[in-house]
């Protein structure tokens, strides 16, 4: 192994280069100055100066989700590190591989309440997959390489490396790769007995359903390809979680839409009534299951997951297969084909008849009048005008607009949809769109936002303008914390406590103040032209779309109810959630 | 390890019949966790229990392999079988955890605890203390004219029993190590 002597700061840059990193999102400060000095003196890695460290981490997430590579953020000690906590937690919940490098006060000052000292590894221990405090320069390169390995192996996730300033200044020996084979080697191949059990279940099922999640996306493009093959070959219907959208194309004829709290009627009914549920890379999140006791009462549940702790965590599984989705699907297809590609086609055909009846409910129908733009309509038009672009990437903030985006936009490919699922982080979408655009400079990157969420990280407009990133901020402005307002309507007797957005900025002027373009649209008749204007503008845009203020997001499975107990529209929603349901979030 | 044999026509029956039979009764399990001896590893393990609301009845930790940088954490925990499974799986996710063994499931383990007792007393009480210590095979490790300090090893139940007998005589202070455990039999 080639060992070269260099400073810790140089090692950081060298290790990133050796790991194939081309972009780092960051913000400098006293404790990372030596690293910034090294960044200044090279050209391999581009540093994007964000406007807030939370933005750096979400941008790294956006970069990671849209490329399948590791996203990297670099921040200073103390406040820089604490500002990164939300992004780390977000990445942990959604299993996104990112590396956050933090500066730390020099080793000899640790524990003395030094200026900008924070116990970064202590604070971030529960919100990282793993973290390290490196106290010796000789160990630095090994730790960074191991950090990449840990972030990407098994269930991906965020890792953090805390680097004291004296370690950055000191010299040590640099290793090009991990010092030794890492102890951390999660199982990727699924157990063949479990796979065979699943094949048997597939052969016999009368009402089968694929329920797929972010794990398919995380597993890589091969997993999505194999999933498509399996779905087509079996002819079984497929639904997906918010995180899994795009693994199977929305235009595919086996697609029955997203499931869950704001999932499609047909998808939730199918979940409730199926007799074989094939969970691929999803985790039975509570937005999906609703109340556990009533969750899909008559199905055999198969669960493919790379993380053993996901199995039997919430829902008891009948067939558990621990492994990487792509590996397991490959073996599953092999075994199923070798046994004659059997399914109970006749019964499955009847099952499709049932699903078709549910589809006829047309749960996403809405009426658009001539006066006010319905948020659903805004998204339906955006979809119509952009869906043919293969290079369209969508990020979102959190709220009603996020759910509508998931419902009304169709995703044909994995890695084209970036949203904060597990943590539900308002303020995610804007910096994430910047990360995506950095990775795909010529793509059409649109952040579907609510006005309230967008304000949480609006400072990143400066980043977009500085680096000429033509991100489109498509704000569905209902002047409400819409999702909160909806819950208050349903649960709290229409007492709208602090759920409206007052003193909003003039978004067009705000865009102009940043040096970007602003577009205001309030008339349904202008919508198409305005959207085209946004798309055709070669630069960042804030699109202020004034929409209906009191629209509710449906379908909705109210807290404490079963999948077959959905609210489909505004028709009296009062009192639907009982006392037991109202304590749930 | 296909515990589940899909029966003919099983897919049309209630799936609950097929599930591993998890009972809702809480059990006491002893876990052995082999970890990388790095700073923070104990915080990771304890943080996991605190963060996810699991019980810790007893926890001991010490380095067991200096050259291999390995420590062994022995945890006694209480939960339903599903919770215990979850605890083991969650421990297994910690990057610096090398092995997790549920000693209670893997076969009866040898479990021992060490305790130190300081008991005050004069006259006949002193005789009684020594008599009890003899029965429990406790050793006197320190003595004054008015007290004894005993060292006792055994199962937690044995130490509890010793404490119960010493308390009325004059148990002043007690220190316990928590349980160390190894699986029985061959390697
Ligand atoms: C950081 C953060 N704080 C609070 C919440 C709770 N929350 C969820 S949705 C929502 C309202 C979002 O409003 P807006 O962005 O305007 O979206 P809308 O629902 O109106 O489409 C709030 C406050 C959250 N998800 N994230
Ligand atoms: Mg809003």
UniProtKB/TrEMBL annotation, chain A:
Pathway participation: Amino-acid biosynthesis; L-valine biosynthesis; L-valine from pyruvate: step 1/4; Amino-acid biosynthesis; L-isoleucine biosynthesis; L-isoleucine from 2-oxobutanoate: step 1/4
Molecular function as annotated in GO: acetolactate synthase activity; flavin adenine dinucleotide binding; magnesium ion binding; thiamine pyrophosphate binding
Catalytic activity: 2 pyruvate + H(+) = (2S)-2-acetolactate + CO2
Cofactor annotation remark: Binds 1 thiamine pyrophosphate per subunit.
Keyword Transport: no
Named cofactor requirement(s): thiamine diphosphate; Mg(2+)
Highest taxon in the source lineage: Bacteria
GO cellular component: acetolactate synthase complex
Entries under Gene3D superfamilies matching the protein: 3.40.50.970, TPP-binding domain
Signal peptide location: none
KW GTP-binding (keyword) present: no
One of the Pfam families matching this protein, by short name: TPP_enzyme_N
Keywords: Amino-acid biosynthesis, Branched-chain amino acid biosynthesis, Magnesium, Metal-binding, Thiamine pyrophosphate, Transferase
EC number in record: 2.2.1.6
Family matches, as CDD domains: TPP_AHAS (cd02015), TPP_PYR_POX_like (cd07035)
Limits of the Thiamine pyrophosphate enzyme central domain: 195-332
Protein's name in the database: Acetolactate synthase
Protein source organism: Octadecabacter ascidiaceicola
TrEMBL record, chain B:
Domain ACT: 30-105
GO molecular function: acetolactate synthase activity; acetolactate synthase regulator activity
Pathway in which the depicted protein is active: Amino-acid biosynthesis; L-isoleucine biosynthesis; L-isoleucine from 2-oxobutanoate: step 1/4; Amino-acid biosynthesis; L-valine biosynthesis; L-valine from pyruvate: step 1/4
Entry EC number(s): 2.2.1.6
Reaction equations catalysed: 2 pyruvate + H(+) = (2S)-2-acetolactate + CO2
Enzyme class: transferase
PROSITE patterns in the cross-refs: ACT
InterPro entries per UniProt: Acetalactate_synth_ssu, Acetolactate_synth/TF_NikR_C, Acetolactate_synth_ssu_C, ACT-like_dom_sf, ACT_dom, AHAS_ACT, AHAS_small-like_ACT
Family matches, as Gene3D superfamilies: 3.30.70.260, ACT-like. Chain A, domain 2 (3.30.70.1150)
GO cellular component: cytosol
GO biological process, one term: L-valine biosynthetic process
Keywords: Amino-acid biosynthesis, Branched-chain amino acid biosynthesis, Transferase
Assembly: Dimer of large and small chains.
Family under the similarity heading: Belongs to the acetolactate synthase small subunit family.
Physiological role: Catalyzes the conversion of 2 pyruvate molecules into acetolactate in the first common step of the biosynthetic pathway of the branched-amino acids such as leucine, isoleucine, and valine.
Name of the featured protein: Acetolactate synthase small subunit
Source taxonomy: Bacteria, Pseudomonadati, Pseudomonadota, Alphaproteobacteria, Rhodobacterales
Record gene name: ilvH
């Amino acid at each position: 192994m080639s060992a070269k002597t260099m400073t810790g700061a140089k090692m950081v840059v060298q290790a990133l280069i050796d790991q194939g990193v081309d972009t780092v999102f960051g913000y400098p400060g006293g404790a990372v100055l030596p690293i910034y000095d090294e960044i200044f003196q090279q050209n391999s890695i581009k540093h994007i100066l964000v406007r807030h460290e939370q933005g750096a981490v979400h941008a790294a997430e956006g970069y990671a989700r849209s490329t399948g590579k590791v996203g990297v953020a670099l921040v200073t000690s103390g406040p820089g590190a604490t500002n990164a906590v939300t992004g780390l937690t977000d990445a942990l919940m959604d299993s996104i591989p990112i590396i956050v490098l933090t500066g730390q006060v020099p080793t000899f000052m640790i524990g003395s309440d030094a200026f900008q000292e924070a116990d970064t590894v202590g604070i971030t221990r529960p919100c990282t997959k793993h973290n390290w405090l490196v106290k010796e320069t000789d160990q630095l390169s090994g730790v960074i390489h191991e950090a990449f390995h840990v972030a990407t192996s098994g269930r991906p996730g965020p890792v953090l490396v805390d680097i004291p300033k004296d370690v950055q200044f000191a010299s040590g020996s640099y290793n090009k790769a991990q010092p030794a084979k890492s102890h951390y080697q999660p199982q990727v191949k699924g157990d063949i007995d479990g796979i065979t059990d699943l094949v048997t279940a597939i052969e016999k099922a009368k009402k089968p359903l694929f329920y797929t999640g972010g794990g398919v996306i995380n597993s890589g493009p091969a997993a999505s390809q194999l999933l498509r093959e399996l779905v087509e070959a079996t002819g079984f219907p497929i639904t997906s979680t918010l995180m899994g959208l795009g693994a199977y194309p929305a235009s595919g004829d086996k697609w029955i839409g997203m499931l869950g709290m704001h999932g499609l009627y047909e998808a939730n009914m199918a979940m409730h009534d199926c007799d074989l549920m094939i969970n691929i890379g999803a985790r039975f999140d509570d937005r999906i299951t609703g109340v556990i006791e009533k969750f899909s009462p008559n199905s055999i549940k198969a669960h493919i997951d790379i993380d053993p702790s996901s199995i039997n965590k919430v829902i008891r599984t009948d067939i558990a297969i621990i492994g990487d989705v792509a590996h397991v699907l490959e073996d599953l297809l092999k075994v199923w084909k070798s046994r004659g590609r059997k399914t109970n086609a006749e019964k499955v055909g009847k099952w499709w008849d049932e699903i078709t009846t549910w589809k006829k409910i047309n749960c996403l129908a809405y009426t658009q009048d001539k006066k006010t733009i319905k948020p659903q309509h805004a998204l339906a038009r955006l979809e119509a005008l952009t869906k043919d672009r293969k290079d369209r990437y969508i990020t979102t903030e959190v709220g009603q607009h996020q759910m509508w985006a998931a419902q009304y936009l169709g995703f044909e490919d994995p890695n084209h949809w970036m949203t904060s699922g597990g943590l539900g982080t308002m303020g995610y979408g804007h910096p994430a769109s910047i990360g995506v655009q950095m990775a795909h400079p010529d793509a059409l990157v649109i952040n579907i936002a609510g006005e309230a969420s967008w304000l949480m990280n609006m400072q990143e407009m400066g980043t977009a303008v500085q680096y000429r990133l033509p991100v489109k901020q498509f704000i569905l402005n209902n002047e409400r914390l819409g999702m909160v307002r909806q819950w208050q309507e349903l649960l709290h007797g229409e007492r709208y406590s602090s759920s409206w957005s007052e003193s909003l900025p003039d978004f067009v002027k705000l865009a102009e103040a940043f040096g970007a373009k602003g577009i205001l649209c309030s008339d349904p008749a202008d919508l198409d032209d305005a959207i085209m204007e946004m798309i055709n503008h070669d630069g960042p845009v804030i699109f202020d779309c004034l929409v209906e203020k009191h629209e509710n997001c449906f379908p909705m499975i109210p807290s404490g109810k079963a999948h077959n107990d959905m609210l489909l529209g505004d028709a009296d929603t009062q009192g639907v959630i009982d006392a037991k349901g109202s304590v749930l979030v | 390890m296909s515990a589940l044999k899909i029966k003919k026509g099983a897919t049309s029956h209630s799936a609950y019949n097929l599930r591993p039979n998890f009972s809702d009764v809480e059990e006491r399990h002893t876990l052995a966790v082999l970890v990388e001896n790095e700073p923070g590893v104990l915080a990771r393990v304890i943080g996991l229990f605190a963060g996810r609301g699991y019980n810790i009845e007893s926890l001991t930790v010490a380095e067991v392999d200096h050259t291999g940088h390995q420590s062994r954490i022995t945890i006694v925990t209480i939960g339903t079988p599903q919770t215990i499974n979850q605890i083991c799986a969650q421990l297994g996710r910690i990057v610096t955890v090398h092995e997790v063994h549920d000693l209670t499931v893997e076969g009866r383990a040898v479990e021992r605890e060490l305790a130190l007792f300081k008991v005050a007393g004069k006259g006949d009480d002193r005789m009684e203390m020594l008599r009890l210590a003899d029965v429990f095979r406790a050793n006197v490790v320190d003595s004054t004219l008015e007290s004894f300090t005993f060292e006792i090893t055994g199962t937690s139940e044995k130490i509890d029993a010793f404490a119960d007998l010493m308390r009325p005589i004059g148990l002043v202070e007690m220190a316990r190590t928590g349980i160390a455990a190894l699986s029985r039999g061959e390697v």
